[in-house]
Amino acid sequence: MNDYSITILTFIAIQAIVACGLNVIVGYAGQISLGHAAFFGIGAYASALLTTKGGLTFWTALPLVILLTGAIGLVLGMPSLRLREDFLAVTTIGINFIVESVFLYVPFFGGALGLGGIPSITLLGTRLRGPNFLYLCLVFLAAVLFISRRFTRSWGGLACFALREEETAASSMGVSPIRFKLLAFVLGTAMAGLGGALYAHLMRFISATDFGFTLSVSMMSMVVLGGIGTLWGPVLGALILGVLPEVFRPLIDYRMLLNAAILLLMIRFQPAGLLGEGSLLRRLFRRPGRDSAHE
Amino acid sequence: MQLFFEQLLNGVAMGAIYSLITLGLALVYGVMRILHVAHAAVYTAGAYVGLYVFTMTGSLLLAVPAAMAACALLGTAIERLIYTPLLKYPPFVPLIGSIAVFLALEEIFRLVGGPYILSFPAEFPFPGITVRGVVISPAIISIYAVSAAVLLLLWFVVTKTELGLAMRATSQDREIAGAMGINSSFTISMTFVLGSAVAAVAGILVGIYFNQVYPTMGAVPAYKCLALIVVGGLGSLPGAVLASLLLGVGETLLIGYANIPLPRDSLAFIAMIAVLLWRPQGLLGNR
Amino acid sequence: MNDLLLRLEGVSRHFGGLKAVDDVSFSLTRGEILGLIGPNGAGKTTCFNLISGVYAPTKGDIVLEGVSTAGFPPYRMAALGVGRTFQVVKPFSTLSVLNNVQVALGLKRYGGVLSSLGPWDTKASRKEALEILEEVGIGHLAASPSGQLPLGNQRRLELARALALKPKLLLLDETFSGLRHEEAALLSKLVLGVRARGISVLLIEHNMKVAMGLSDRLVVLDHGRLLAEGKPEEIRSDPRVVEAYLGKGASAHAS
């Protein structure tokens, strides 16, 4: 594999991590979030600042970054998740625009110039580059998938499924709506924070426009394309949307149109996504007698 | 003081234009409970069609109805082909569908109309006015006159006509309205016709006012106007107008005077979050 | 009396100008089956929503085991021992019937974030859920998606979920409607069995025969107000109740 393909794959792995986080919020808990890129950005800026101005290494900063992103998720989620669905959608869009402009206009965050000089990641004394950085991302992706799976198998995950299907009934069964929506929101935003940290140290230079609303929409596209609420859907979605532009390089001018058209056709004709319940792909490869009660 | 009044006039003009776009969203939300992001693409289409017909014929009197008709068609097509089949799913499904339509249309505008800014060189057949040193440009006069006329017309349709009654009944409860003999599918389509035609007018007004028509001119209104219908109270038409006017004036004055380090486009969202914390049902919404 | 379980004290709930429940008081003892009856729109389901915490009362108090619970959210009421079914069934549609019941089995786990991190799909929870499903007679449907069941079975699933909460007070909102005769007989037996375990039952029922047959006492609501209260035979012969159900309608027809 050449350097270029490795870079592409590294991006895909990072986006898959972030999309998995979005899937926890949208897929498992049924809470629409169209501002996920904001938390990706918060993770990236936090790690960039802690390692450049704070003097920490990537590894010492990482737990703080994940905690901080999750904590900001908690603070922003607390009022938002009390709102009606439609309000929540618009509020999360708003959060994205506001966070982006804070990065862009507050000098502490580097303003329009962004933040540079972010150190690369070293492990056991060697700088991680190329394939090694990809492996690191894949390890984190595996960890994120493992945690997602554990979450779907925990009582908290079940509570989220119940809330997603029928909030009043779930509440009458002892599930506090706000507590478990927040749990999913914090978990999902923390994953976005992890992805952001990896992104910052891969690029070594970040600016506010990397984390705009468009990115939130592509994150959502990945989740929808792969299959909302499935374990592997976000990974598949990230892979397809990441590889597609490379395959259709000759059609570069139509790339955005193609992305939008895929999302539109998908949501119109197969809203459960490629791996969702009752999808074309599933029906093709159905294994008889297999219980798919969860995941 | 002179500057202040000029700013104020500009602010109200912006607010009037916002309200023309936002009303379409509020109408659609009312009858369908869908956040119609693609409405901003309809508005952009209005500007392009208007500009095209104007360039061909040189007549605004032809351009405006042509754009209104084209947008009405586009809006209804979006409703029929995308929204109606998706109504049975949870609300985020049609919302994502709407965003996808919006992005696809933006790309089509770019591919067809070119990625650059086109100018809309319409001249108004009357001069501006100067009142005590405050200059009121013909564009501002037109915006005021046209939006007032459109708002009055909309108010008349919604409150005085059978269609308006059907729209209000459908907003209350689609099933009951259906049971009362209201053809809700026709009502919904007419709502899109109405909202989209008004968006076309807004598109042309903005095109002329800023002398700019470009593919992504809908990007900011697409989401800002969502914030506005939330601030106004989802589905409340007077609320939508009030929120739009307040934002237009607020943006213009705050950016003009107070030197806020944030761009004007996030003001709508900050206002929205403030309003939601203080009054979760919106300015004029009821629970 | 120490075996008093639930007391409504002058409870009202207004929606705008509408007084859905207006100054209603009644009480329920441990192990009692109380029927809540009344014409459509009498405020029965609103009463349930008040007791189970879906709505907070506009006025008055709801006391469960000596604790004032007015304004408590549903999940706290569930934790305090109130289990309910919904008249308009609310299954967790994409989850299987078995998983639906397992949701309710997690009641104790939902109290804190840490306790909710344990695995839910264990052998023990599956077994327990299956037993409850068999008790209500839909054990054979455990693996089906709950959203696709016919209404009668969805009502039984509602009951199974409420039972899985191991409640002290069971609220049944028209659980018997839409059931065939023999199904209803089975559930009646089940309700009596539940009461024998010391669980109190408050039930809304349109079928008078079922309501009269099952209940120790009846409370009659009309236009949000308490109309009458007493043993089934007293209620049956109460002229006010007869009028509320038939009288005005009948006299209107006659004139």
Describe this protein with a few key phrases:
heterotrimer; A: 295 residues; mainly alpha; two-stranded antiparallel sheet; 2 strands; 69% helix; globular; disordered C terminus; B: 287 residues; 75% helix; transmembrane (chain A); LivM-like (chain A)
Can I get a quick summary?
Chain A is an all-alpha fold and 295 residues long. Chain A has one domain (3-212).
Describe this structure in words.
The complex is a heterotrimer of chains A (295), B (287) and C (255). Chain A is mostly helical. Chain A contains twelve helices and two strands; from the N terminus they run ααααββαααααααα. Chain A has helices at 3-28, 36-52, 58-80, 85-105, 130-152, 155-165, 167-172, 177-203, 213-226, 233-247, 255-269, 280-284, and strands spanning 122-123, 126-127. Chain A has a two-stranded antiparallel sheet. In chain A, a hairpin with a 2-residue loop joins β1 and β2. Chain B contains eleven helices and two strands; from the N terminus they run ααααββααααααα. The radius of gyration of chain B is 19 Å and the shape is globular. With 287 residues, chain B is mainly α. Chain B has one domain (13-218). In chain B, a hairpin with a 2-residue loop joins β1 and β2 (134-136). A two-stranded antiparallel ribbon of chain B has the order 1-2. Chain C is α/β, with parallel strands linked by helices. Chain C has one domain: 3-Layer(aba) Sandwich (Rossmann fold), CATH 3.40.50. Chain C has helices at 44-51, 74-79, 97-105, 123-136, 151-164, 181-196, 208-214, 232-236, 239-254; strands at residues 4-15, 18-29, 33-37, 59-64, 67-68, 82-84, 169-173, 200-204, 217-222, 225-230. In chain C, the strands form two sheets. A six-stranded mixed beta sheet of chain C has the order 6-7-8-3-9-10, with helices on both faces. In chain C, β4 (59-64) and β5 form a beta hairpin. The longest helix of chain C has 16 residues, at 181-196. The termini of chain C are far apart. In chain C, 45% of the residues are buried. Chain A binds chain B through residues 26, 30, 32, 34, 79, 82-83, 85-87, 89-91, 93-95, 97-98, 101-102, 104-106, 213, 217, 220-221, 224, 253-254, 256-257, 259-261, 263-264, 267-268, 271, and chain B through 29, 33, 35, 81-82, 85-86, 89-93, 95-97, 99-101, 103-104, 106-108, 111, 223, 226-227, 230, 234, 261-263, 265-266, 268-270, 272-273, 276-277, 280. Chain A: GO terms for molecular function: branched-chain amino acid transmembrane transporter activity. Chain A: It is found in: Cell membrane.
